[in-house]
Structure to design on (415 residues):
């Protein structure tokens, strides 16, 4: 987690994080340079993350594969200054931190408790890091409060919450009540807020879509988008937004009081959402009340009648068995190749039966059931006779010679 101590927005493309697999660089055997991107507002946080995220932190997130060593390591934050385009960029060390599994000089000792963190000390009056020099300050072992995952407690005394800069990154609380009146006197909508009960929970997931229901004329009622809650407690969907489309977007704000059961599913039908999904390709997303995407289904191509687009083991599949409100069942449609053969299986004739009989003079070639043309049979037969005559030409000559002698003998007897 990086923190912007300045009053200016930082261009993170001018910063890099360098990782070594040992706090003692003379013993390091590998390193990695992580390029950053995006903008970081004043006094805000930037998270490098390769695991699930909590909704309670408003931070700029850059998801990368970190691969940090749990035995020993070091990270450095480097800033690059360039006097003018085309001139060399000079790196400048911004901050660093080294760690070790066992106590070692010059390194922070990692907590022995699984799931614990190291938090930078001291903090300012606003609970933000207050460190004057690179590598300065101390570190405190902390872990999420079991009662509120957005609050941290010290590992040594878990009953006492500690000051943390994260507390300033919680989603905004309720603002004082206000009414916005436009020129025609109509009251405007209130500012969005995150349901308090959702803080610290994992985001729901989009798990199944039915873009093209079986039959005709029912797209406006039977299309559905399914959500899943992986948490052990109910998730309040009040104010969350369902969104469909890839170029032209359509939104539906989920009404207040809508709850997604713990480890359960909820299918939201187009009869209530009025959302339409294209049969030729599209996508569905779930946004939080502030309009940030927290889950999205994979983009799908053309949807056939009655087939659902469903998530299973991290991948999306077409299934002929939609399961709204239940665990997905992937029953993939049979794909066929030219000639009526099932892909990946044995060949079966699934078309109309060949009803031609031998009385018609039609013959089957045994492959596709098509009759053989009589002219083809005549040519083949003629070639066979010619080949036979050639092979047995000597025998035929003897037979002809014998027939001639017999005929001459009969003529002599008659004379």
């Amino acid at each position: 987690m990086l923190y912007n101590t300045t009053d200016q927005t930082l261009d993170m493309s001018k910063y890099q994080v360098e990782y070594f697999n040992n706090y003692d660089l003379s013993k390091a055997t590998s390193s990695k340079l992580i390029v950053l991107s995006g903008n970081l507002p004043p006094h805000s946080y930037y998270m490098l993350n390769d695991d699930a995220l909590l909704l309670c932190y408003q931070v700029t997130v850059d998801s990368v594969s970190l691969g940090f060593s749990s035995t020993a390591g070091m990270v450095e934050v480097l800033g690059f200054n360039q006097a003018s385009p085309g001139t060399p960029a000079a790196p400048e060390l911004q901050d660093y931190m080294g760690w070790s599994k066992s106590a070692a000089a010059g390194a922070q000792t990692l907590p022995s408790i699984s799931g614990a963190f190291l938090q930078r000390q001291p903090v300012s009056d606003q609970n933000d890091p207050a460190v004057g020099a690179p590598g300065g300050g101390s570190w405190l072992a902390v872990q999420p409060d079991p009662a509120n995952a957005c609050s941290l407690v010290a590992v040594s005394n878990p009953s006492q919450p500690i000051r943390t800069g994260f507390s300033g990154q919680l989603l905004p609380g309720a603002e004082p009540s206000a009414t916005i009146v436009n020129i025609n006197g109509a009251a405007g909508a209130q500012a969005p807020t995150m349901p308090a009960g959702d803080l610290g929970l994992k985001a729901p997931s989009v798990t199944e879509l039915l873009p093209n229901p079986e039959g005709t004329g029912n797209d406006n009622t039977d299309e559905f988008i399914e959500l899943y809650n992986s948490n052990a407690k109910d998730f309040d969907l009040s104010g969350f937004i369902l969104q469909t489309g890839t170029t032209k977007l359509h939104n539906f704000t989920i009404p207040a009081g809508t709850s997604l059961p713990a480890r359960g599913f909820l299918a939201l039908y187009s009869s209530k959402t009025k959302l339409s999904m294209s049969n030729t390709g599209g996508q569905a997303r779930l946004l939080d009340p502030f309009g940030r995407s927290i889950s999205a289904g994979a983009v799908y191509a053309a949807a056939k009648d009655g087939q659902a687009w469903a998530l299973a083991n991290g991948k999306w599949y077409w299934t002929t068995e939609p399961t709204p409100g239940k665990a997905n069942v992937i029953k993939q449609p049979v794909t066929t190749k030219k000639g009526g053969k099932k892909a990946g299986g044995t060949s079966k004739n699934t078309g109309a039966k060949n009803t031609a009989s031998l009385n018609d003079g039609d013959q089957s070639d045994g492959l596709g059931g098509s009759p053989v043309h009589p002219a083809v049979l005549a040519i083949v037969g003629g070639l066979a006779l010619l080949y036979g005559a050639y092979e047995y030409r000597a025998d035929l000559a003897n037979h002809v010679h014998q027939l001639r002698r017999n005929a001459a003998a009969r003529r002599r007897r008659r004379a």
